[in-house]
Amino acid sequence: MFSDILAGFQSAFMLNSVLLMNLGVLIGIIFGAIPGLTGNLAIILFLPATFGMTPVGGISMLLGIYCGGAYGGSVSSILLGTPGSNAAVATVFDGYPLAKKGKARKALTIALIASVIGGLISAVSLLVAAPVIARFALRFGPEEYFALSLFGLSIIAGVSGKNIVKGVISGSIGVVISTVGLDAITASNRFTFGNIYLLGGFNVLGVLLGVFALCTILYKIFNKEYESKVENQIQITGTDDLTFKEFKTCVPCILKSSVIGVGIGALPGAGAAIAAFIGYNSAKNSSKNREEFGKGCIEGVAAPEAANNAVTAASLIPLLTLGIPGSVNAAALIGALTMHDLVPGPTLFRNQAPVMYAIIISLFLINIFMLIQGRFLSKLFSKVLVIPNMIMIPILIMLCVAGAYSAIKSMFNVYAMLGFGIFAYFFTKLKFPAAPLVLGMVLGKITEFNLRRAFVTSGNITFLFTRPICLFFIIMTVVLVITLRRRESSSKTSLERESSEKA
Amino acid sequence: MKMKIRTNLTGGIFSALFAGVLWFLSLGIIEVMPNSTSVGANFFPKAMAVLLFIFSITLIVQSVFFKKEEIIELDLKGELRTMIFLAIIVAYVVLINLIGFLISTILMSSAVLWYLKCRDWKYYVICAAAAIVIFFGFTYGLRIKLPKLL
Hints:
The structure holds two protein chains of two kinds.
Chain A: H1 2-12, H2 15-33, H3 39-46, H4 55-79, H5 89-100, H6 104-137, H7 142-153, H8 164-178, E1 181-182, E2 189-190, H9 204-222, H10 244-266, H11 271-286, H12 298-314, H13 316-322, H14 328-339, H15 347-351, H16 353-376, H17 378-384, H18 389-408, H19 411-429, H20 435-458, H21 463-466, H22 468-502
Antiparallel strand pairs in A: 1-2
Chain B: E1 2-6, H1 7-26, H2 43-64, E2 71-75, H3 76-99, H4 101-115, H5 121-141
Antiparallel strand pairs in B: 1-2
Helix pairs in contact in B: 1-2, 3-4, 4-5
């Protein structure tokens, strides 16, 4: 194990990897900062660019985008009062009022430091927990993998929004999409209609680009967002920086929020937005300056930022060790991992241990680079907020088409992206959530394959209740669905209450 | 001009129809030998068709009997604007096969900017430059050959 960690250090510290991590962080912060764009979108758009890179370099760049995107949302939250992403909503409550008092630099600095500390604590959790869980998961047979896949599918409950029935329909359609192509066990043609490009099924990147990127562009056109101009952006002045005493007062809430973020990130489905909100509430309840929250309290900026960045590495725990994407970001990363011949799951730590440790170590480096970039490039990031939507729209389309084409070097994937984009546009118009569709597509193959293998070895479905690990996952599935639905409705109620108090 | 749509009812009907089509298409998939204990290639698609149908009916029941509905107001002018934009994108994708990625992308960016009523020449130059950077970046940087002029 130590030789694997040393080999990982070597790969992570190569110049190529370091440069790509920095590029990823820069792209992630920019995308996270611009309202309407997200780190997740950046991961999907730049995924094709990693094809020609080494596995460590390519995955590190995408992780840089992931972590940078998680922090970047705070820039527009603080300077515009508009969150750059869902995870940065709670940062607006105190970040924007603090900036309006002429303390924008202080707010950005504490957001950055809290994000970095949260990210580092999250990376430690991944380094410690992942090898242990992976070793345990090596005992799994197809029965356990099927039960685990069902557990993974249950995160649909957390991303379904208001109506879980619509979420289940969306997830089911995703599973249906995953069945297109040659059946892995019997080699039957399923829904290929004689098209050779469908023999391997729909390419994940084409679906992701269509459902998230193209659909976002169509909504920008519908909502006339190309006409909107950024007004009332607060300028960063040089005289209001964070003091060491102020940082010391924030340390307890940063550490507490980081632990909250790690716990929520490791559980599939809950997401950075929920972590940020719980972190904010927890800091408010335990603060001596409770009445200052909502009026520009620096703890109110530090807590949600620490929590949302603490989700990043922790959300990779179920992905890397069990092959279950705990979030939509992780589902995009599955595409990247498989394209570099890294099949997520417990065998990854057995067969590709140096690469895994390199990726985990790169998460530490990424957070340090984010600290440097955030500190010295804050004025650049504030200028990025004024890039007109009118320029971004054609550029995003170009990136989508080039990316979709490059996945399988065929225009068919571009047509598929177009088709899924149009479908997702009307689908989401009818208030169906898009995230379960992607999760269903990613997990559908694993679920079906292991169910059919389990039937060969066990003969019937009773293995779900007779094998202890399967029973554990079934109970966890039920508990997770109930918990996520309760948390979704209570956090939405609290969010509405906070927003109306602000108004 | 606006149009009200009952999303639960509409979504439920469309997904029920999809479930029906899926069921019939699944019948064409080759089945396993009858005595085998394993599950065939058509099991999962059929199972999803049944699940989809059940939840579609649930959605319709929610709307019709329990009056639990999410109503949206469709802005037809906005939808027309989006559909015309989509037509530009479809034309762009068709053009790529005929005149290659670089030229069709420059034409697309100009058409999109013109359609969005942009009259600042700098934006056209920036987007054309972005097309060139992306083309050469993919072709020579990432070594992925994008479609060229035949």
